[in-house]
Design brief:
Layout (H helix, E strand, L loop, with lengths): L4 E6 L3 H13 L10 E7 L6 H5 L11 H9 L4 E5 L1 E3 L11 E3 L1 H7 L2 E4 L5 E2 L11 E3 H9 L15 E5 L3 H11 L2 H4 L6 H8 L5 E5 L11 H8 L4 E3 L17 H12 L10 E6 L2 E7 L10 E11 L4 E13 L1 E4 L3 E2 L7 E2 L4 E2 L1 E2 L2 E3 L5 E7 L2 H4 L5 H19 L2 H7 L10 E2 L15 H8 L6 H17 L9 H11 L3
Parallel strand pairs: 1-2, 1-6, 2-3, 4-5, 6-22, 8-16, 9-10, 9-16, 10-12, 11-12, 22-23
Antiparallel strand pairs: 7-17, 13-14, 14-15, 18-19, 20-21, 21-22
Helix pairs in contact: 1-3, 1-12, 6-9, 9-10
The protein binds NADP nicotinamide-adenine-dinucleotide phosphate.
Length: about 500
């Protein structure tokens, strides 16, 4: 039988759970060829499921169905979850209550290590820094999902015009939430305090600005269709010339669908709804000037360089023209990158240094038994289905290291490419105590500061119960409330 395997997974989002579930199911309990296995998952957030809980838009509840699979994974006796634990060299500043676990404690206690740490920081725009008039999209997402680092609520009752920079799905999620009536949103997993702010919103128009054209827009057609069908908002028609592909360009099926939807326009004609939105193509911000007076109704001035597509590089290049857009608030939604504090961060790629699922040294050598999956390995792109496919491929790589190749072929058909060479194993512990935990975690559990999966299921059930009482999907708890609820519900 192969030697025991004790895998630590840092991160508790979808990529982490897909790897855990695949590994545990491919190496069944009590199977003669499977090594003794433990999978311990650590997350700096107290609740599991990462972006599924703290990123998916509340009006997309079906996307969260994957949590049923994750719940099944957590019932495997070889699996444990430790929430509110920040693994890393420095304490994570934005979640002050998270327990700090140095990476060395992981290395001393585990034989294998997977980074599924995601891309947790927003990419900022070089020309406009965060200010009272410019916030990253992540602040809004964290606000409406009640993320543990969530920022103060946006002053939606003081603004009429909001500008999103970037035309990806996160932009469309935010626009949709702002343009949907709170009476519709209240059936979903939207906290009461968020609904209260949304019900006072005076936002009338959302501009969604992109530096390239409709063929290059990053959003998907499903999300565009939802915008077009909004009952209380209409789209400002787009100049027909912008919706005609340039000569010699054959649009893909998805691009054709996008163009058709944009040509058709929104379900409600412009002017017939209390709110409106626009897609402003070929515009790139160059500066943001605050209002000239302190009056709340005064708008900031966003300067936009007009751009065109360079056919050789497909990049946006300035035409030399500019215009000014008066706006109350700019929200930059330009994607995400990994936290530079994470070990093996590659500043050029802005995610972790890895190849075919393995963390690599700065010389490009794969580090033995250290892996990366999901956004941590590939950057912030793709939807949940692509995260799952990637996670399964990384599981294939892990498996190829822990079971003899002949057995690995029987267990999985995933092809795992062994890179150029494997650096000697000096980091992890090849003979860890299988059921032992880092001492910091033992203390954290005793102090009630580490949340395990059973604790989460208690909170989960209570959130759903509170939601049902309010006629909605769930009513979320914050950290302090969850902690006191767990204390009160603990058997005496
Ligand atoms: P994204 O899809 O990468 O879109 C980023 C947008 O920002 C693009 O329009 C990009 O334009 C623009 N941008 C980047 N840098 C810029 C700059 N310096 N100046 C002007 N514009 C700039 O990112 P996202 O919307 O944050 O989404 C991240 C991932 O999550 C995506 O894979 C997305 O599909 C996924 N997601 C999926 C869903 C869903 O399935 N419903 C919901 C949310 C997120 P260029 O193309 O010109 O670079």
């Amino acid at each position: 039988m192969p030697p025991p395997v004790k895998l630590a997974i840092i991160g508790g989002g979808p990529s982490a759970f897909y790897v855990a579930s695949r590994l545990l199911s491919l190496l069944p309990l009590n199977d003669t060829v499977s090594p003794p296995l433990r999978v311990h998952m650590y997350d700096r957030l107290w609740a599991p499921h990462g972006l599924v809980r703290y990123g998916v838009a509340p009006d997309h509840p079906e996307v969260k169905n994957c949590t049923h699979k994750f719940d099944m994974t957590a019932t495997d006796p070889r699996f444990r979850f430790f929430g509110n634990v920040n693994v890393g060299s420095t304490p994570f500043h934005s979640i002050p209550h998270a327990l700090h676990l140095p990476l060395t404690s992981i290395l001393n206690n585990y034989s294998h290590l997977l980074f599924a740490t995601g891309c947790t920081l927003p990419t900022l725009h070089p020309a406009i820094s965060p200010s009272a008039y410019c916030i990253p999209a992540l602040s809004l997402v964290h606000w409406y999902t009640q993320h543990p680092s969530h920022s103060s609520p946006p002053a939606l009752d003081k603004i009429s015009h909001l500008t999103l920079i970037g035309q990806g799905n996160v932009s469309l999620d935010i626009a949709r939430i702002l343009l949907t009536s709170p009476s519709v949103l209240r059936q979903y997993d939207v906290p009461e305090h968020v609904l209260e702010v949304l019900s006072r919103s005076t936002v009338k128009h959302v501009s969604i600005v992109g530096r390239r054209g409709p063929l290059e827009a990053a959003f998907t057609t499903k999300e565009l269709r939802e915008m077009i069908n909004l009952p209380e908002a209409s789209m400002i028609p787009i100049e027909p010339a912008l919706l005609t592909p340039p000569p010699g360009v054959t649009p893909t099926r998805q691009q054709r669908r996008t163009l058709e939807l944009l040509q058709k326009g929104s379900k409600n004609p412009p002017g017939s709804t209390p709110k409106s939105w626009s897609l402003d193509f070929y515009r790139s911000p160059t500066g943001l000037a605050p209002p000239s007076t302190a009056s709340a109704s005064d708008m900031a001035s966003l300067t936009l360089a007009h751009t065109r597509l360079d056919p050789a590089t497909s990049r946006a290049v300035p035409t030399g023209e500019t215009s000014t857009l008066p706006t109350s608030l700019v929200v930059t939604s330009l994607g995400f990158h990994a936290d530079p504090e994470t070990a093996f961060f590659d500043p050029a790629m802005r995610h972790l240094r890895s190849s075919a699922g393995r963390i690599t040294s700065s010389e490009g050598l794969a580090l033995k038994n250290i892996y990366a999956s999901g956004w941590a390995a590939n950057g912030a792109n793709g939807v949940l289905a692509s995260t799952m496919i990637d996670a399964y491929a990384v599981t294939g790589t892990i498996l190829s290291d822990i079971v003899p190749p002949s057995e690995a072929v029987k267990i999985t058909s995933a092809t795992s490419v062994l890179p150029m060479g494997i650096a000697p194993d000096k980091m992890l512990n090849p003979h860890p105590d299988l059921d032992g935990l880092p001492s910091e975690i033992v203390h954290g559990i005793n102090d009630g500061m580490v949340i395990q999966y059973d604790d989460w299921k208690v909170i989960d059930a209570e959130e759903v119960r509170r939601g049902e009482a309010l006629g909605k999907e769930r009513e979320r708890m914050g950290w302090k409330e969850a902690l006191s609820f767990l204390t009160l519900s603990a058997p005496s």
